[in-house]
Design a protein that fits this description.
The chain is globular and about 80 Å long. The protein is about 70% helix and about 0% strand. About 30% of the residues are buried. The protein folds into two domains: about 350 residues, no CATH class; about 30 residues, no CATH class. With about 375 residues, the protein is an all-alpha fold.
């Protein structure tokens, strides 16, 4: 979530240090892969325990939440860019964020917004998540026949997306189709889903896999670091070849395997040290991860605001520290605040009040005591 914020925040010096600057894959790959694992954890058991219909109902409910978040995020950004344009007066932030169509053709853009056929760049990952999540019931239906069918269908759809240019319409100012092609990116999602379901088992003790993964990451570094490709002709030619053979929209194989290599190395390094993730300094990040939807949507809006500040206050050290510290603190505060609201502490107080007003030793039935105490 924090990396996604930095990646969207124009002028942020931390942009030079996010994973995308050191290889082929980036935070989008992480987001989609982890989303697949999270969906497996949150909803997979429901399909097994309560049946396909109940699992599908839970998926539909979550899709509705994501849909509402997408609409809300876009409208928040639409308001922020107007306010920013008026506040500073010298910059058209509507054009900077590339949502001119929303103001020039509002009626059709609104229809496209609610039907997910108007998907501007930088506000386009939640629609991808919605489509991927909605495909989970299909995957679970196939898994009831044979789990290998899920993997076969995912790979087949990925190949078809590349061969037949399958995609969905975006109708945005700078792109006709979705920047994240869901027919291709589902491969990353269902890889994470299948790993968490136990359909794919990978040994963390394989020296061969570790060696291959490290080699891929080193190749990614050589491609990405100016100190190498600007001074070594062979690496420069390798970089040009990468440019000609990679495409983020369709999740090309080079990106896919680079991400898997990075994930594998990280897991090997963490093996036996998982308790580090539960240490006190990381608890705020854990809380943000637990409230990922709120943090993601807030981060997108804050990234637009941060970019405006950098545009007019400069990108010097003090501004960088101020903007990033305030933003990160705000995101952590939002995470804890959302968690507090979700816990509904007022319900506990209500239950305590009921217990005081109606002692347990009373022979009156519980449901009657509640009604008598709080006549509604």
């Amino acid at each position: 979530m924090f990396i996604i914020y930095v990646a969207h925040c124009r002028g942020n010096v931390l942009y030079d240090y996010i994973p995308a600057r050191f290889g082929l894959s980036d935070s989008a790959d992480m987001f989609v892969f982890i989303s697949g694992m999270t969906v497996s954890i949150a909803f997979g058991a429901t399909f097994v325990r309560d049946g396909w219909l109940m699992g599908t109902a839970r998926i539909a409910y979550r899709c509705a939440q994501l849909y509402a978040a997408q609409i809300g995020t876009f409208l928040a950004v639409a308001v922020v860019v107007v306010v920013g344009s008026r506040w500073y007066g010298d910059t058209d932030y509507i054009a900077v964020e590339q949502i001119q169509r929303f103001y020039n053709d509002t009626g059709n853009a609104l229809v496209g917004l609610v039907t997910l056929t108007y998907v501007p760049h930088n506000i386009d990952i939640l629609p991808l998540y919605i489509v991927l999540l909605a495909s989970v019931p299909i995957a679970m239906a196939l898994a009831r026949l044979d789990r290998r069918l899920v993997l076969a269908a995912s790979i087949g759809l990925y190949v078809a997306a590349s061969v037949f240019d399958l995609n969905l319409p975006a109708n945005a100012d700078n792109q006709a189709v979705w920047f994240f092609d869901p027919f291709a990116w589902q491969l990353v999602f269902f890889t994470g889903f299948a790993v968490r379901r136990g359909w794919i088992v990978v040994s963390l003790d394989s020296k061969f896999l570790l060696g291959v993964s490290v080699a891929i990451l080193v190749g990614g570094l050589l491609y990405a670091l100016p100190t190498t490709f600007e001074h070594v002709g062979a690496i420069h030619r390798f970089r040009l070849w990468i440019y000609d053979n990679t495409n983020k929209t369709v999740m090309d194989p080079l990106r896919y395997f680079h991400f898997l290599a990075m994930a594998y190395v990280v897991l090997v390094l963490l093996k036996g040290r998982q308790q580090v993730l539960l240490s006190a300094p990381l608890r705020p990040f854990i809380k943000c991860g637990q409230q990922a939807l709120s943090i993601f949507t807030s981060g997108i809006v804050l990234s637009v605001i941060g970019g405006m500040v950098f545009d007019h206050a400069g990108t010097g050290p003090l501004t960088q520290i101020a903007v990033n510290v305030v933003t990160f603190a705000t995101l952590v505060a939002i995470a804890y605040g959302v968690a507090w609201f979700k816990a509904a502490p007022w319900k506990r107080r209500l239950e305590a009040a009921v217990g005081v007003a109606c002692p347990v030793e009373s022979a009156t039935p519980t449901h009657w005591r509640v009604r008598r105490t709080f006549p509604l």
